[in-house]
Amino acid sequence: MAHPPAPLLFVTGASSGIGQALAARHAQAGHRLALVARRVDEMQAWASSQGLGPERCRVYGADVADIDSTVAAGQRCLAEMGLPDVVLASAGQSIGMDTAEREDLDVMAHTFALNNVGTAAAFHPFLAGMRARGSGTLVGVASVAAIRGLPGHGAYCASKAGVVAYCESLRGELRGSGVKVVTIVPGYVATPLTQHNSYAMPFLMTPEAFADQAFKAIAEQTSYRVIPWQMGVAAKLLRLLPNPLFDRLLSGRGRKKRLREQAAATPPAP
After folding, report:
1. Structural contact between residues 181 and 190, judged by C-beta atoms closer than 8 angstroms
2. Which residues are catalytic?
3. Which CATH number, 3.40.50.720, 3.90.1150.210, 3.40.1710.10, 3.30.750.24, labels domain 8-265?
4. For site-directed labelling of 28, which of 6, 92, 198, 213 has its Cα 20 to 30 A away?
């Protein structure tokens, strides 16, 4: 008697950071993996280093900021690996912006295309099949930066607040279908997204420690989980502060580096 295939995880942003850490955690639990990102060679090299052959893992190159590219990756996954059990939309960017600078409006547009529309595009190819099957888990990755706007972080904070609201809307739409929506809200995780930060990052986690907690929340189909919980408490306290006090508290706080500043801070490849 043939055994059913192992559960399948489809994950965007799989070439580094949170996406890669969660891919590793799901592989450890026996899942098959469909890895999606632009950096195909890096994903292939990582899969090989983990001992994941084509029967366990396939790589799909896609620009998650491009709708058609992302949808096409999902359709290839359906054709080659089947309908996923978990879809994890973790591709994203965090770049500082100054609204007075014209080039930063383009940064904002790309941030929304990747962090927001890219999340919906990752889910889209699988919704009909999951509804018909009556099961599946869609996971959106937000941030505690969604809870209050931080100076210099306008694009990122707004996009992650959008992820929270979008996932909440989708959860209501799918109520009773058997398809669950999970919103993961990370605090500070030591990834390429945070390596340029010039300010204090309380409760900083390793990607592996974060992935352990997020994996549990996804497996339990928890609707909303802040990781670590201490950041959830801190963020809610900030939410309660009156605006004048909040503004005073953040006065002089370091800002996220803008695109040019991040490029200047990154050493050239050897």
Report:
1. no
2. 156
3. 3.40.50.720
4. 92
